[in-house]
Amino acid sequence: MKFEELTKYFEKLEETSSRLSLIDILSDLFKKTPEAEIEKIVYLIQGRLAPFFVPIEIGMAEKNVAKSIASAYDSTPEEVTKEFNKLGDMGLAAGHFASKSKRKTSATTVDEVFKILEQIAKTSGEGTVEKRQNLLANLLKKLDSLSAKHLVRIPLGNTRLGIGDPTVLDGLATAKLGDKSKRKVLEDAYNRTSDLGLIAKTLWEKGLTGVGKLEVRVGSPIRSELCERLPTPEKIIEKMAEVDAQYKYDGFRVQIHKKGQEVRMFSRNLEEMTHMFPELIEATRKQVGAESVILDSEALAYNPESEEFLPFQETTKRRRKHGIEEAAQKLPLKAFVFDILYKNGRQLLDEPLKKRMEILKETLPDDDILIRTKNQVIKDPKILATLLDDAISKGLEGLVVKKLESPYEAGGRNFNWVKLKRHSAGELNDTIDCVLLGYITGKGKRTAFGAGALLVGLYDKKKDEFVTVSKIGTGLTDEEWREIHKRADKISIDKKPARVNSTIIPSVWIKPEIVIEVLADEITRSPVHTAGKTDTESGYALRFPRLVSFRGGDKKAEDATTVDELISMYKQQGK
Ligand code: ATP
């Protein structure tokens, strides 16, 4: 396929403000995509060259991209920057200069563009900046203006399509299987491998059966299983009968992959974080009694002498890119391992938890830096309550209670795993992770910072959409407003993103990327907000919402609290 043709689809995707038409456009595109290119096109749609978990950096600074544009179209970097400042987007600036050149169409293929982008990404060492600039400039010379517009946004990490993984899956299913009914097979494979390109390629080459056979791979993160909520030990035993109750550690999730001596680690949102934790790498090599393994764990700073767990705010200081050795000395981590998902060539997802815990014990017999989670099989609510008290008194968040017979449901959030935190009757016992969707400009003092209220939403997983749940205004300090502006203004856009569903129109739309932790007194029904709203029923909203924190890198917008979760929290209120 010509790159020019692909960018015509990019253009359509960018124009639409409806999620259903995103699927239609993707499906049209995929129907025309040959086997040899499907993988690449799936990655390019998301502005990438590989799945999310592969840390390929094509990053180029604005000023360097400006130099490439200048050199491609016989202009000067100053002229390009002037145009960029006028148009507010380097893509538009590139398009402007390209349209003045004689070339109206381009025969350059997706394959060729992909190869050059790979070359740009792989360039390293002395003269990298110039080499990258030249590669980009030479490529631009061969392209028409639309292609130029979309191409330059890739190295800037600024593609504006905003297409979620579930929408890509819907597009693939519609194109290849006729409708979305067999999408589940694709989704399951995605939960096991986290690699949309691989799934698309397999679907094109080997059909749905081939996709069904895609197994867990060491080196590709498995999508994490998550917890439902129940309010009390009694409710838990009533619903789950006999459970494996484990401490709930409040650090950050680390999925550990080991193959021979090679160890890699992934965060809960599938980001590669291996380089951050040298002590965990060493411990995995030393302690794990298996050639290859995938472990699920929570990393936390812990002092075994005083039995103190450090608070999350401390632990999270270890999520950093620089000064790693020093940080590891100051704040060494332990990893509390609570599951094993793969061992010596065998996928363990379908084994019951009971069996996985046995295998884990054989694989990790002794505690040291890696420590097996404390767990206990319980069927009496009183004993469960005592264990909860024990966890709280140790400074932990509470318990995660798991069904003994349950498989590991990658990407699932259901009653196989339930979190139990300290709860006072009638109040929400958990914070809600909301996505910033926009802000509403206020009057008076706040206008100095240009905001009066934040429009926040949740993720509707079924529809792959963001829906509104609250406006947050009071209680934000000037410092917090400033912080919001610093983060949000970079990603503000001039129209409603296609995956946002809102009846409220804020003064400024923000791309759904920033996750904030919100505490509220209560969940109420609301005719205004679109969270949980149907044709016949009103939506849900938060009463007295307040900002608790900005979630750093550990949560993507799609990891925010989902509408289904909110509804189940609503149902549990006051019980
Ligand atoms: P929260 O913000 O309350 O931590 P969350 O949305 O991040 O919630 P939950 O589904 O509520 O995630 O809780 C599951 C998280 O708890 C896991 O992602 C993991 O990081 C952590 N955790 C700590 N201990 C355990 C354990 N023993 N088993 C499973 N998960 C655990």
At the third CATH level, what is the topology name of the domain at 226-421?
D-amino Acid Aminotransferase, Chain A, domain 1
Radius of gyration: 25 Å
How far apart lie the N and C ends?
58 Å
* CATH top-level class of the domain at 226-421: Alpha Beta
Main sheet specs: 8 strands, mixed
Give the DSSP E fraction (strand runs of 2 or more residues): 15-25%
**Helix share of residues?**
25-40%
Question: Can you give keywords for this protein?
Answer:
single chain, 575 residues, alpha+beta, D-amino Acid Aminotransferase, Chain A, domain 1, OB fold (Dihydrolipoamide Acetyltransferase, E2P), 8-stranded mixed beta sheet, 7-stranded mixed beta sheet, 22% strand, binds adenosine-5'-triphosphate
Description:
It is a single chain. This protein is α+β, with helices and mostly antiparallel strands and 575 residues long. The strands form four sheets. Strands 13, 14, 15, 16, 17, 18, 19 and 22 form an eight-stranded mixed β-sheet that branches. Strands 3, 4, 5, 6, 7, 8 and 9 form a seven-stranded mixed β-sheet that branches. It has a five-stranded mixed β-sheet with strand order 1-12-11-2-10. α10 (165-177) crosses α12 (196-212). 45% of the residues are buried.
